[in-house]
Structure formats: structure tokens, C-alpha cells
UniProtKB/TrEMBL annotation:
Signal peptide: none annotated. SUPFAM superfamilies: P-loop containing nucleoside triphosphate hydrolases. Residues 207-598 form the UvrD-like helicase ATP-binding domain. The lineage of its organism: Bacteria, Bacillati, Bacillota, Bacilli, Bacillales. Keywords: ATP-binding, Helicase, Hydrolase, Isomerase, Nucleotide-binding. ATP binds at residues 228-235. It comes from Virgibacillus kekensis. NCBIfam families: HelD_BACSU. This is DNA 3'-5' helicase. It holds the Pfam family UvrD_C.
Length: 763
């Protein structure tokens, strides 16, 4: 088929789309009127009568019926809306690929056109467009012309691809069309990757690579681990995977069943457009920090991972620094989990702290009584089940206390404070009864008052507030003696006890503390989450992973990350991304090809990557990275301003000054802000616009920029071996240009890069 013939087909498909749109518009607007009508006249069609019990029941039924009708119409309207949005997308660009496939050598090949959604012809017989997630579409991503096969739900279909073609269609016009081999669209990829960086991520649907497709379409693994080098498309692939799963399991899964842990709030907004672009709803997203914070009572503060990072990098002179590092390493390990398990085991016999149940500062049931009851229960029974029995016992006991309190004098004082409605209610209740009204009325009011006074206490019991988790946990560091003392135990112990007494959980303590809480009170395992995706998985500690597994025992997981970008020193050990660190059954996929940065940037950075991973650049050329030595008599601010100007002249829209710490970032921001238009990104920044930005490296995780300037790549700033991951992560954020400024001696990582991979300049 020639280009003209292809354009003719595009025109025909668009005509079909327009017809469908028109039909849906008519249906939709009719429905809209009905809905407005239903809402406006809701009460006209409901029979309201509240005289007798029977009437009330009838009224309820009538309201329910009317509401259901409205909901049903609204749902249909919602579906029409969704379908119209899909058609609008398709009208602009109906498809991006075509394969001709035949099952037998003598057959006529079938033309399969692939786009972001399926569409059939008027007769509902033939697919004009196949959804990229349909089984047959996998041929497009997995094979070059020649023998090929694909899996349907219960079969494998083999055959031959006789043609593989790609399109770029915009506004219904074919911009380019070309036939290709296996790698989809070197040309297309070149175009996509050569563009300016965007402030929101784009879908890669038209150019998914074979290796990435394995991640996207993986259905069999309960635990899928992806180690992918910087810029290899892990985040892109996981978002496509989410869209794929929502399509493939559309009858069983919806967006609420999927959860994504992302590295920082900026990243969350950066990726927010991808799923809607693919016609899917966004799924729940959270940073792990927010996830933990939501599970901890309000009176306890958790240090953020960023604050912890900042501490590690800037507080090296503090007297407690060594102890804190030891604490981080230990609390991140599975060794600590075993110790905690031992402690919990001991608590099964004695030592849990309880709280008094009080009313107006008077103890109704004492913590000693609760403890006695708890430890009288069979020790074979699990702690959470014993807690449940205690809660039941407390509620029962409380009922008796409530009965006694009802007749006490203080109650009548409260009765006097009741409002008019309460009296009225009491009066109506009594109307239905015969008997001595005054006695009954007082009794009724007393009952009501006492019930109200006890309601919050009961609520707290149901929430297990009678267990003092913090005090129970703190005892581990105050009085408990482990069988074997871990290294640095004394320092760890006093450091932890001190911060717990301030109700402060350091970041390394947060997951262990919550694990402890869950073990005592029972896991609130969230069974609604069927798939969990963890991006930047290299930054999670072994303990945090164990906790996540504990919380989601039945959830399928996809972990994606890059060991080279581990920025928390302690997370490097026992991280699931490192082969052999995991005992559980899992499947591992490795991505070696880097798409983000130019070949020149990849060649520069790969020499100082922390691990010896093979990194293959995608063939996209640019200028060599520059190592800028400030000219003899210029100051660093002038150098940076000149450099920014040069990068702007090259047409870069998003330029990031990536610093090592927030401290460096905000100090530099202060000196630059009156001289150039620049935006500082902090932990609280949720979105960003194009332009000049300044931020610490840990907030740049997962994001990319046209050009990156490292404002201080001196040995003084990046002098520790533990800075390697940070420096590597910062450099690999650059798509087209990387400039490394080195006031003083360049850091050792720059020296490790091959001489021929960079240029030295003086500004
Ligand atoms: N198949 C592809 N087609 C087009 N672009 C792609 C493809 N794969 C990756 N890219 C592009 O490469 C860049 C990097 O992708 P992404 O951010 O998903 O990588 P990553 O592995 O998560 O990176 P990092 O670990 O460094 O944060 C993005 O601009 C993305 O659009």
C-alpha cells in the first residue's frame, strides 16, 4: 500500500470515527437531559410519608429506587463520555503501527492496525484498529518480519509477519510512514528522544522495545524484579504495564486495586499524565513516607527520608553522627527484624504496656487489670487474637460500668445540659410507652447521657488504643536484654530511647516501629491491593521490603530500580535488585539500554557508575559533556550564569542545577535568584514548569531535563565513596547536555571517566 493509499485508509477510519461520535453525542445529550430532569424532579417521583413505620419503609424504598435509576443513567452517561474521549484521541492519531500477518503460507495476510484503543467497523465485524494491548498486537513489539507467534488466552497462534510498518499521524494526517525490522522505529525513537524534555512524562506506546514489552506483558510472576540502567525506560514500562493489566484483567481489576510507590511528590505529578493519555484512570500513588505516615498516630512524628539524607550528608561533625549511621545500618537490616521478632516473642509472656481506661480522669479499668487479663489468656494464641479477646472483654466490662455510672449523681448534671431535640426525642420515645412518665423520662435521659459519654471510650477500645505501642517499643531500648548484643548496641540503644521519648521516629525506625505495631495488633493487610509497583526500589532497605511483604502477603509485586542509583548507603545490602539477595521465587528482567541521554553522556557516566553493569547507549548524538573549570579570576556565580546563557542559546528549555544537598541548593539559589529567573525545588514542591530549576539530587530522582549543570563537582563536595551513587544519579538526569562545574580539584568520579569522553573548558 502506498502512502496515498494509507492516507486514504486513515481518512476512511476518521470518517467512521466521526459517525460514531455523532451517534454518541445524540445519545449522550438525550441522556444528559434525562439526568438533569431526574435530579431536578427527584422528590416529585418519590412518595414521602413518615407517619407510620410501614410508610417510612415504603418511603425509603421509593427513594432507593429513584436513586438507583439516577445512578444507572449517570453510569451510562459516564461510559459515553469515556468512549467520546477515546474517539477524540483516535481521531487525532488513529494508529501508529501495522503488521500484515498470515497463519498459513497460502493465506492472504490480514492487516492489523495498532493504536491506543480498539475500534470496529459499523457492522461490528472487523477491527479497524486493534488496541496495543490485544494479544495479536504483541506481534508488533516482539518480532521482525518472518515467523512469529502470539499467545491468546488459551492458545498459541503461529504464522508469518509479511510486513511491519510504522506511522506518525497527527491531526489525521500521516506525517511519516516507514517499514521496519525488529527494533521499532529507530527513526521514531530518534524523534521522540531528540525532543525537548517535558514537564510531564509521555507514553511510549508507539515505540515499546522488546525487552520492555516483557515487563509490560508479564502475567505469570508474583514478584517481578527489574534492574534497569538509568534511562532504560523502567518508569515508562511500569506505567504501560499498569495500562496493560487494567485492560487484560478488566473484569477483575480496576484502578483502585493497584498501588504505586513513587520516590517523591514531584515524580508523582510528573507521571500523572501517562495513564489518562492511554485512556486509563490514574491509580493510587503514594510515597512510602506518606504511606507510613498515614498508619501512625498523629502525635508521633516521622522524619522524612529526605531529612535523613540531608542529615547524613551535612551533619558529619555532630557528636552522635557515628551512632546515627550505625543505627541506620542496623535498623535497615533483616538482622534487626530477627531481634525485633525475638522481642515480640518475649512480649507474649510479659512486658506489653497498656493504658488505663478513664472517664473524666477517673480510672474505670486500670492498665494492671488489662495486663493481668491479657497475660491470663493462653500463650499459644497469637498476640493479635489475644488483643481481640481483651477488646471484647473490655467492652463487656465497660457495659457493666456504664450501667453503674448511669445512676450516679454527675449524670444528672449532664442531663441538664442536653438540648431541646434530645428532650423531644425522649418525649417521643416515652409516648410509645405507658407507665410512670417522670421516672421513665429521667431514666431515658440518663441512659442517653451515659451512652454518649462512653461512646468515645468504646471507639478507642475498638481501635486498640488501650495498648501503649510506643512505650512497649521503647522498652526494647531501655530494659530489654537481647540474647546476643548487636554491634554498637549501647549507642543505638541510647540514641533510639532518646528520640522515642520525644515521640520522634527517625526514618530508619519508621518501618520497624510499624512492623512492631502490626505484629502486636494484627496486620491490617490490605487485600484490596492486588498489584503493587515500587519504583526506585534500590532506595528501600531490606527491612522496609520485609515490612511491605508482611503488609501485602497476597499482592503481586513489580519492583523496578537501578543499583547504580542507590543514594542511601544502607539500602545497598540485601536489596532485592542485587542478584542472590532474595530467597523468594521471583523473575528478574535486566534492561541495559539507556534511552534518555545522548551516547556521549552515557559514555562519560558509565565509567564511574557504582556497579560494573553493562550500559548500552541508544545511538543518539550530542555534544560531549563539559567539565568546566571556572576561569582564574571569575567567581562561581558568574561562571554559572554564563553557562546557563550558553545552554539557553542551544534551545534548551528545561535546565536543572542539580546539587548534592538541599543546603547547597538553597544557598546557591539565594545567590542566583536576583541575577537569573530560577525556581527552587524543595520537598514541598509538587509540580514544575519549564525553565531554570535548582534542586538537590534526591528530588530529581526519576525525572529528566534537557540540560543538567552540576554546580559543584569538586573533590571537596563529592569526596566520599558513598557519594558515587548521588553523583551518578545527578549526571544521568541529562538528556542532551551535561555540564560539570569544578571549582577546585574535580572529584574523583570525573577523573575516573575516560579522558576522551569529555571536554574541559574554562568559563
Ligand atoms: N521505548 C521507548 N520509546 C520512546 N522513549 C523511551 C522508550 N523507553 C524509554 N524512553 C524514554 O527514555 C527516557 C527515560 O525513561 P524512564 O524515565 O522511563 O527511564 P528509567 O529507567 O525509569 O530512568 P531512571 O532510572 O534513570 O529514572 C524517557 O524520556 C522515556 O520517554
Amino acid at each position: 500500500m502506498s502512502r496515498e493509499a494509507e492516507q486514504k485508509r486513515v481518512n476512511e477510519v476518521i470518517k467512521e470515527i466521526t459517525k460514531k461520535e455523532e451517534k454518541l453525542y445524540t445519545k449522550g445529550s438525550g441522556l444528559k437531559d434525562t439526568i438533569i430532569n431526574l435530579r431536578e424532579n427527584f422528590w416529585d417521583d418519590v412518595t414521602v410519608n413518615l407517619e407510620e413505620l410501614d410508610d417510612i419503609i415504603e418511603t425509603q424504598a421509593s427513594i432507593k429506587q429513584q436513586a438507583e435509576l439516577l445512578i444507572e443513567r449517570e453510569q451510562v452517561h459516564g461510559n459515553i463520555d469515556k468512549e467520546l474521549k477515546k474517539l477524540k484521541r483516535l481521531k487525532d492519531s488513529p494508529y501508529f503501527g501495522r503488521i500484515d500477518f498470515r497463519e498459513k503460507p497460502d493465506d492472504e495476510p490480514e492487516y492489523i492496525y495498532i493504536g491506543t484503543a480498539s475500534m470496529m467497523d459499523q457492522e461490528q465485524e472487523n477491527f479497524l484498529i486493534y488496541d496495543w494491548r490485544a494479544p495479536i498486537s504483541s506481534l508488533y513489539y516482539d518480532y521482525a518480519p518472518g515467523s512469529a507467534q502470539y499467545k491468546t488466552v488459551d492458545d498459541t497462534i503461529t504464522g508469518e509477519i509479511t510486513l511491519k510498518r510504522q506511522f506518525i499521524i497527527r491531526d489525521g494526517k500521516i506525517k511519516s510512514v516507514f517499514d521496519t525490522g525488529l527494533t521499532i522505529g529507530d527513526q521514531l525513537l530518534q524523534e521522540a528522544l531528540g525532543d525537548n524534555a517535558s514537564t510531564s512524562m509521555k507514553s511510549i506506546v508507539a515505540t515499546i522495545q522488546k525487552e520492555q514489552n516483557k515487563i509490560i506483558r508479564n502475567e505469570r510472576s508474583n514478584l517481578l524484579i527489574v534492574q534497569g540502567v538509568a534511562g532504560s525506560g523502567k518508569t515508562s514500562a511500569v506505567l504501560q504495564r499498569i495500562a496493560y493489566l487494567l485492560y487484560r484483567f478488566r473484569n477483575e481489576l480496576n484502578a483502585a486495586n493497584l498501588l504505586l510507590f513513587s520516590p517523591n511528590p514531584l515524580f508523582s505529578s510528573y507521571i500523572a499524565n501517562v495513564l489518562p493519555e492511554l485512556g486509563e484512570e490514574n491509580i493510587s500513588q503514594s510515597t512510602f513516607y506518606d504511606f507510613l505516615k498515614n498508619r501512625i498516630s498523629n502525635d508521633i512524628t516521622i522524619e522524612s527520608p529526605f531529612a535523613q539524607m540531608e542529615y547524613t550528608l551535612t551533619a558529619t561533625n555532630r557528636p552522635e553522627f557515628g551512632a546515627r549511621l550505625a543505627n541506620m545500618t542496623y535498623k535497615s537490616s533483616l538482622e534487626y527484624k530477627s531481634l525485633l521478632d525475638q522481642y515480640i516473642e518475649d512480649l507474649g509472656h510479659e512486658g506489653i504496656h497498656f493504658r488505663n481506661i478513664t472517664l473524666h480522669q477517673e480510672t474505670l479499668i486500670s492498665k494492671e487489670q488489662i495486663s493481668e487479663y491479657f497475660y491470663s489468656i493462653d500463650k499459644e494464641i497469637s498476640l493479635p487474637n489475644r488483643m481481640e479477646s481483651v477488646a471484647r472483654w473490655l467492652l463487656q466490662t465497660l457495659r457493666k460500668v456504664q450501667q453503674e455510672e448511669k445512676n450516679k449523681d454527675w449524670i444528672i448534671e449532664k442531663v441538664e445540659l442536653l438540648d431541646k431535640d434530645d428532650y423531644l426525642e425522649a418525649y417521643h420515645a416515652l409516648q410509645r410507652d405507658d407507665g410512670d412518665e417522670t421516672v421513665q423520662e429521667e431514666d431515658f435521659l440518663r441512659k442517653e447521657v451515659v451512652k454518649r459519654q462512653f461512646a468515645p471510650i468504646k471507639k478507642r477500645i475498638k481501635r486498640y488504643a488501650f495498648v501503649n505501642i510506643l512505650a512497649s517499643y521503647r522498652e526494647l531500648f531501655r530494659t530489654w536484654e537481647p540474647l546476643e548484643r548487636p554491634d554498637d548496641w549501647e549507642e543505638i540503644r541510647s540514641l533510639t530511647a532518646a528520640s522515642l521519648s520525644k515521640k520522634l521516629l527517625t526514618w530508619e525506625e519508621a518501618a520497624p516501629y510499624l512492623y512492631f505495631k502490626e505484629r502486636l495488633l494484627g496486620a491490617s493487610n490490605d487485600r484490596s491491593v492486588r498489584h503493587l509497583f515500587i519504583d526506585e526500589a534500590q532506595d528501600y532497605s531490606a527491612f522496609q521490603f520485609a515490612f511491605i511483604r508482611h503488609l501485602f502477603p497476597y499482592t503481586r509485586m513489580t519492583l523496578l530500580g537501578d543499583v547504580n542509583q542507590a543514594i542511601y548507603a544502607y539500602s545497598a545490602d540485601e536489596n532485592p535488585l542485587i542478584p542472590d539477595s532474595l530467597e523468594q521465587n521471583h523473575e528478574r528482567i535486566i534492561l541495559n539500554k539507556s534511552y534518555r541521554s545522548t551516547k556521549q553522556i552515557v559514555e562519560f557516566t558509565q565509567k564511574f557508575a557504582p556497579h560494573n553493569t553493562s550500559i548500552e547507549p541508544f545511538e543518539r548524538d550530542g555534544d560531549k559533556p563539559q567539565v568546566i573549570k571556572p576561569a582564574y579570576n571569575s567567581n562561581i556565580t558568574e561562571t554559572l550564569i554564563k553557562d546557563i546563557k550558553q545552554l539557553r542559546q542551544k534551545g534548551h528549555e528545561t535546565i536543572a542545577l542539580i546539587c548534592k544537598t538541599a543546603k547547597e541548593s538553597s544557598e546557591l539559589f539565594q545567590t542566583l535568584k536576583d541575577k537569573v529567573s530560577i525556581r527552587e525545588i524543595t520537598e514541598q514542591t509538587y509540580t514544575f514548569e519549564k525553565g531554570l530549576l535548582i534542586l538537590p539530587v534526591y528530588l530529581a530522582k526519576g525525572i529528566e531535563f534537557d540540560a543538567v549543570i552540576i554546580p559543584d563537582a569538586s573533590q571537596e563536595n563529592y569526596g566520599q565513596e558513598s557519594d558515587r551513587g548521588l553523583f551518578y544519579t545527578a549526571c544521568t538526569r541529562a538528556m542532551h547536555d551535561l555540564h560539570v562545574v569544578t571549582p577546585g580539584k574535580p572529584c574523583k568520579f570525573v577523573n575516573e571517566a575516560k579522558q576522551e569522553t569529555f571536554e574541559i573548558t574554562n568559563i
